[in-house]
Design goal:
The chain is built from 1 helix and 11 strands; from the N terminus they run H-E-E-E-E-E-E-E-E-E-E-E. The protein is globular.
Amino acid sequence: MSKTSVNARLAMIQAFASFMDSGSQSATAIFYEGAQPANTAIAADSNSALVTLTFPEPCIKETTATYVEFHPTDTATVIKSGTATWARIYNGAGEATADLTVGMDISLANTNLALGGALSITSIKIRP
């Protein structure tokens, strides 16, 4: 991987932060069960959605030279029982921005989500 300057990383991170808050809605993170698509261009199976978490606006808490930190999400109710295997983050325009693998990119206290249970994200940082 090539090495970029601090200023270049900051520019990319600040552009990402602006992209996340674009659109008329709030940014969201949706947790899914099952196989994760190969990339964000492939639509997620809405039947596999377990819970949708909503970020406040603006959704970005802090940008540094190495990461973007999001504000915590709301606490949402699980709409389907299942094992959360991955999550997709969408910007305020509903565009997929990042896929995260549960257990590798994002940690949950319990990956087995029960119908009617509650879930929230207290801390999330994305590194370009």
